[in-house]
Every structure is written in structure tokens, then in C-alpha cells.
Amino acid sequence: MVSEKVIIQVLAEQKEEVKNYRSQKLVARREETLFEFDTNLAQVVIGVRRSGKSTLCHKVLQGRGVTYAYVNFDDDRLAELKTEDLNTVLSCVYQLYGADIQYLFLDEVQDVDGWYLFVNRLLRTQLHVFVTGSNAKLLSGELATHLTGRYNEIRLFPFSFSEYCSYHKIDTEGVTTKAEAERKSAFMNYMNDGGFPEMQKMRNKRGYVESLVEAILQKDIQKRFNIRNIEVLRKIAHHLINNSCQDINSDQMSKVFGVSDKTIQKYISYLQQTFLVQVLTRHSYKSMERIRGAKSYVVDPGLQNNRENSLAAENIGWRLENIVFLELLRRSSGEFLDVYYYKPGPKDKEVDFVVCDKSKTVELVQVAYDIDSPKTFKRETSALLSASVALRCEKLTLVAFSETRDIEMEGRVIHVVSALDWLLEN
After folding, report:
1. Which of 234, 240, 346, 367 is the most exposed place for a label (fewest CB within 10 A)?
2. What is the pTM of this model?
């Protein structure tokens, strides 16, 4: 157990820290519009560590002008909190903020056993509860079980390219040669350094990324799931980061790393739950076909370069594809859409992304760095056209480093969109 004296000291210090957010001009995030203040639902923000979940909640709450209590469980002094300590935490909240407080923000709560029962009790008292956490299964799974639909889930990623430009004050609308060159330079930096908010002004980006990856592996996975051989987990994680946009070959990894296929699948699931790796499944109306042939992507492009074990291929096309996938996930979450890739057979042409509204295909998105070559242009467009017929989809998008224009082919229109234009769309 943790004593009341320690808990109230920690919460008092955290209350002072919250004041710092009021004086900062914070980057606007797309996810701010997804909060539902006019309901009795718990507002649950999940995402990879250090993606800005806490800052997002502070910004939204302060923008709303409400008084709220704050408890950050990611504090070493609260590491031994047990279920029975949560009532003491609530008592300390009332002592510091007053018994009439109506909004409570619980930050990184997933490591406290029984936290979801605590949240359920708070909701029954009509408190407005905001929750953040870094594990999708713990949050989504347990909330779904114990809150029975009484929560609004918001997924947050590191900065998008548009948010990155906002942070660095890049002119995203100017039409001068200088403005265009500045945007292109910013994008190359974004591909290399990524969008983790804290890393933007750091010189030692490698140290930051390595500590972040280790925190995810040790605190969010090893500690939670009692992993004995963390070295195998570490190798799998770096392998998937180095090979983003590629098929997941668990049989091959099983032979290389000397563990069972079942263990490989379990470890990949943990990496996915903690958002380090994003898994994309194949578009198919058959469940087993969706499971086979999954592809992995990394949650932020900055993870690919800034590590000791970062001998990733210098393929700009794959890096662009990874960035486009993350942006599709951001845009799709608010619309409740799903994203897949399309490849009906081993010898068939592949379309990078299929955006679906339930069973209906609403957009096909192909990504290519360079389409100046006639051979490349034909390969990418023919894949879109074939999938358009098979999936009965008219909205065809080709994202590339090219001028934005529409091309009519075989009675269909393909929207060729400059990668920068597409990423900067609102």
C-alpha cells in the first residue's frame, strides 16, 4: 500500500505542474473534435507512449474552461498502488480540489489493478472522467467488459505532417518558390525525425527513441505480461521496425529467433497493443484470408532511423507508404472507417490501402514515390483500375511526389495527388 501522505504529496506536485499547460501555446490536434463533453461517457485516450495524450486532454479541458482534478499514475512513488489504494487517491483528490469537483483526469492508469472498476464507480457518481493509457487491450478490452459501452475511445498518434508543420511554423499555404522548398525540406526532416512532440527540439534524438522503445518493451510489455526472454521480444520489435510496410513472416522469424510460431504471434500482438507496431490485414470477405498475410508498419517514421539497430533500407517509397498509412488511420478513426490492403492472389497486383465503411469500399489509395517512369506509372494505375472493378469503387487516389492532377483511364478518373498536398489536407 501507498500511504495517504505520499499520495497527497504527489497529487499536490502534479496540481502545480498542470499550471504550466496554461501558459503554453499548444499545437491543435485533429482528435480534439472527438471528445464528447455533453455525455456521461468516460473519455478514453489511448496511443503509444509520449504521443501527447496527456497534453491533448489538458488542452481540451482547459479550452472548455472547466476546473478538473489531475492524477498521473506514471510516477515512481505510485508504482506500488493497489486496488485498495484507489479510494485513498479519490480522498486526496477531494482534499486538494474540493468535494464538488466534477471533472477528473486519470493519466496512464493502466498499470493499477482494478482501475476500470474504479472508473466505473466514478461514473456512477456522475463524475466526468478522462482516462489515458498506453495499452489498447487493457483499456479497450477491460472497458468494454466493465463499462458496457459507457466510454468514448480516442486514438492518438504522434504529430501528423500537418501538425509537425504547425509546431515548426512552416508555411503550408504559400505558393512562392521559397515556401514550396521549405515544405519539401520539412517533409524530408519529418520522414527522418518523425512526430513525437517531445523530440522536436532535442539534439539527441537517438537517445530519446532508444529510451522510448525500451520503456515500451520493459514497462508496457515485459512487466505487464511477465515476459522472461525480453531479448527475443527486443529483436522482434527492431526487426519489424526495420522492415515496415512488409509482410509479417512469422515462420521465418520463428526459425531465426529460435522460438515457436505461437510465441512470435504473441509478441507481435503485444507490440501491436502498445501501438509500437501497426498491423494491416488483407481485404477479404473471408476471415481466415484476412488473418494470413498481414503487414506491419511502425507508429512513427522517427523510429526507423534513430536507433542503434536501425539498418533499415533507404527506400523513400516505403517510408512514404508508412506515413500515408498512419494518416489514413488518423482520418478514418473519426469516421469509423476501416483500412486494409488489397491483393486477392499471389500473382495479382496489389493496392496499398482500401478504405471501407463496413463492407462497402469507399476509396482505394495507392502510394508511389516516383511515377515518372512509364513502367512504374502503368503498374500503379493498373492495380488501382483492377481493384476498382473488383471492389466496385470509383474513388481512386494515387499519392506520389508529383503534381496534383486528374487522369482519366478506362472510363475511370484517378486522382493523382502530390504527397505534400495530400498530407496537408484538412
Report:
1. 346
2. 0.94
